[in-house]
Amino acid sequence: MCGECVKSKCPDRGNICLDNGSYILNFAHCAECQKREPIKIAQRNVEVKDDGEEVISYEHKCTHCCHVIAEHEHTFSIEGEYQEYAMYCMLCGVGSDTVSVLPVDPRKEMTLF
């Protein structure tokens, strides 16, 4: 991973968790060739572990010189009645989210009263 290619290393993205794509606003330029060409995704891999956790990983690369800008990792798992998402990437940032699998999220109902 290259910290010179990004404006901010691992920005906090709150509950945004990308399993594909790139956070272009955080891309300064390629540290190798100094170009600001579109970023390509390479080496995309989807792994499903024995416990059901899904891990998607890929590399953000410069389209012009193939320099690796950042390595991206997205995880998805089910914990009880919730879907858990997490993202870690120097370019796209760090984020996590929890979503209820039920039609009505019990946590949100509790805050109404």
Automatic annotation (TrEMBL):
Q: Does the keyword Protein biosynthesis apply?
A: no
GO biological process entries: fibroblast growth factor receptor signaling pathway; positive regulation of DNA-templated transcription
Q: Name the domain of life.
A: Eukaryota
Q: Name one Pfam family in it.
A: Churchill
Question: What keywords tag this UniProt record?
Answer: Activator, Developmental protein, Metal-binding, Transcription, Transcription regulation, Zinc
For this chain, one GO molecular function annotation is: zinc ion binding
Question: What protein family does this chain belong to?
Answer: Belongs to the Churchill family.
PANTHER family registered for this protein in UniProt: PROTEIN CHURCHILL
Q: What is this protein called?
A: Protein Churchill
Species, as recorded: Strongylocentrotus purpuratus
The major lineage groups are:
Eukaryota, Metazoa, Echinodermata, Eleutherozoa, Echinozoa
